[in-house]
Fold this sequence. Notes:
This protein has 11 helices and 27 strands. The protein is α+β, with helices and mostly antiparallel strands.
Amino acid sequence: MPTGPLHAVLRHLAETDRTDAQLLADHVDHRDDSALAALVRRHAAMVWGVCRRLLPREADAEDAFQATFLVFVRRAASIASPEGLAGWLHGVAYQTARKARAMAGRRAARERQVAALPETAVTEPDRGDAAALDAALTALPEIYRVAVVLCDLEGMTRTEAARLLGVPEGTLAARVARGRRLLARRVGDGTPPAALPVPMALVTATIETATTGAASAAVAALTEGVLNAMLLVRLKFALSAVLWVGVLVGLATLAASAGVAPVPDPAAGWKEALVLKHDHPVTTLACSADRIAAGDAGGNLVLYDAVTGKNRRVKLVGGMDFKTGYDGLRFTADGKLLFAIREERGGIWMTRPGDDDQKAWGLGGGGTRFLELSADGKVWLEANGQSLVVRPNPYYPDNPDVAVPGYESAIRYPAEPVHAAMSPPEGKYLAIFTADGTLHLHERAARKETDLLEATTKVELGKQVVTALQFSADGKRLVVVGEDGFARVYDPANGKELVAFEGHRGVVFCACFSPDGKTVVTGGDDNVARVWDAATGKLLAVLAGHTDSVRVVAFDLPGERLLTGSADRTLRAWRLAP
């Protein structure tokens, strides 16, 4: 292999020109040691910072640093989102440092026992610990965690981070700002910790260890401990459905012997009818009478025949790059038009699903985020800073509301709008969740009066992080989901909580009502979709099959099939057997 100053310069240029995803692919597919070395050098400072914040003893931090990259080498081929590698490495570094901290505590306790001193329990860092921010970071949604890690922990400029992720700089800036706000709500201060210089000798030694696999006994033991913990988590989710069946069968037997009604089967008659594979995590769905549209995190829009599953990809063209994926899709009632939405930066595209020559148009400026499009496609909600705008859709054919260019109405909230929903079909009720933890419920007619805030019903959710809002088809109920298993149904007319759904672990990413409004489906970080009785909150079914978080759920128009899209890059269709 050539060496010398010129080769070093050329190698540096090659490394900086390749994204994490490209370097990871070269390492996994071609066993390219230079790609592995580039990834270690690129993320060394961030990983070292995590290890040092949790481990005051430098030798322990060095072991955790090396073990983090050994875990990466062992798990590289199974990383689902290569573009999110920085966030993945941060999480592994945090887990590894915690395990190293526990091991160091047990070692110190044994040493104290030998010295005939009382043993002291090992405790996790409290909220004031320097590592609290790392703990909060691990709980952020991946899209925000990666942006914060790159810009705040690795010290990249927004331009560098945007290039690395393959997204517009404005999109990256919005993600960083959102991630910092979420962190501030968890730890009281979103300020990133000061960068710690990483010893270059450690980086060199780690590259050699990762390449050869020749680790010290302490590093090897720590690596195996983290890998075993990760395996246990995967097995827990994989076996959860089997365990549920076993438990429920046992309960049913006991119930029958006691003369009481048995617990229902968690599958509850739902059968998997179709599995469709994507190249990237599925992020959004829409259904017409004869088509299913699915958008993924890689910017692919796939149109499926609703019956056969046959499909074709659509490449939208226009002023905006769609490599970072879709946040929303809406068919018009006749199914002839499909609107594709980007939340984080101004952009709404219209395409004609039946055309061979796909066309699309876009609009929106810097700082504008599209939050929601009404079910009839005639009105959308957009946010800019703390302001929300209700704007008629000029791309809807012969839209009667577009008499005068401009917007229908606007309001400025005390905090930035984060999520929004409009009740079907025309958006009579608006639900807006703002960054201060408030759910605002409006009647849209009131927006034309003097001050919308006077006509607002507020639901204070405190520090609860909301991830999605969805109205029922009749507009009379609103389901709200979020972190920590949060899932509730509210009356949009008065803000009263109607029912709570208890059962998800972790983040609940999505929810939808069935067309008849009798059931609610939620999907979350525990890799399953749950079907609930919308009136009582009773769990009707647990649909297990995905191997990663369920990010979007939707019913087809007849309500005969339920669609679930996942970070495992599959779209699954479920049918309730007669």
